């Protein structure tokens, strides 16, 4: 069996000479990012150490050095996704100062673009895998608390919970539907959950 190669250790070049690999302090993070890309393309069932190594452009031993089992690799990648997604979600609302601003952001969140499509696919891969993995279920709960806390700043906790559930359902529908829902219908559904405007500046 081939020995695992720890990051930064010497390897033998094709001509038999020894050479030292460049120090790569972010290799673990690159492996996790590569795992997320494999998840987007092939789903949880499609992850292998070899696929991840090829996508990350690192030796196979570098992947198995950090993550001997696929379960740890999946969990690490999904934890990285939740951390990144939470920061991105927070940033979406940074300039919201009115009810109309909030509605506009939420409509775009549902309709999305390529980057948000990727994030939505990863989110639903996580939720599906979490059905049978308590460790991943803890990550889904962490994400739910984080996203609802952001929404609650604008809507209150009770409305945030209903709105969060609506958004997840609408995003899933948008991923699976062959026809895009009209923007006006998306907007109307969100406004119904928010309820009527209650004062100036809303």
From TrEMBL:
SUPFAM superfamilies to which the protein is assigned, alphabetical: Homeodomain-like, Tetracyclin repressor-like, C-terminal domain
UniProt DNA-binding residue ranges: 48-67
InterPro entries: Homeodomain-like_sf, HTH_TetR, Tet_transcr_reg_TetR-rel_C_sf, TetR_C_31
Acetylation recorded as keyword: no
Keyword Isomerase belongs to the record: no
UniProt entry keywords in alphabetical sequence: DNA-binding, Transcription, Transcription regulation
Top-level taxon of origin: Bacteria
Region (Disordered): 1-26
HTH tetR-type domain sequence ranges: 25-85
Listed Gene3D superfamilies: Tetracycline Repressor, domain 2
Bias (Basic and acidic residues) ranges: 1-17
Protein name stated in the entry: TetR family transcriptional regulator
Lineage, broadest ranks: Bacteria, Bacillati, Actinomycetota, Actinomycetes, Kitasatosporales
């Amino acid at each position: 069996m081939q020995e695992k190669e720890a990051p930064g250790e010497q390897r033998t070049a094709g001509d038999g000479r020894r050479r030292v690999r460049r120090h790569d302090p972010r290799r673990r993070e690159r492996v996790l990012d590569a795992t997320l890309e494999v998840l987007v393309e092939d789903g949880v069932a499609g992850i292998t150490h070899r696929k991840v190594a090829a996508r990350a452009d690192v030796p196979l031993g570098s992947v198995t050095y950090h993550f001997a089992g696929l379960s740890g690799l999946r969990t690490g990648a999904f934890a990285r996704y939740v951390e990144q997604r939470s920061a991105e979600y927070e940033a979406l609302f940074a300039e919201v100062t009115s009810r109309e601003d909030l509605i506009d952001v939420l409509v775009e969140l549902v309709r999305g673009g390529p980057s948000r499509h990727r994030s939505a696919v990863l989110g639903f891969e996580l939720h599906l895998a979490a059905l049978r993995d308590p460790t991943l279920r803890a990550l889904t709960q962490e994400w739910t608390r984080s996203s609802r806390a952001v929404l609650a700043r604008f809507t209150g906790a009770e409305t945030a919970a209903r709105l969060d559930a609506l958004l997840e359902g609408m995003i899933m529908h948008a991923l699976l539907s062959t026809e895009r829902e009209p923007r006006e219908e998306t907007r109307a559904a969100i406004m119904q959950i928010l309820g009527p405007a209650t004062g100036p500046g809303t």
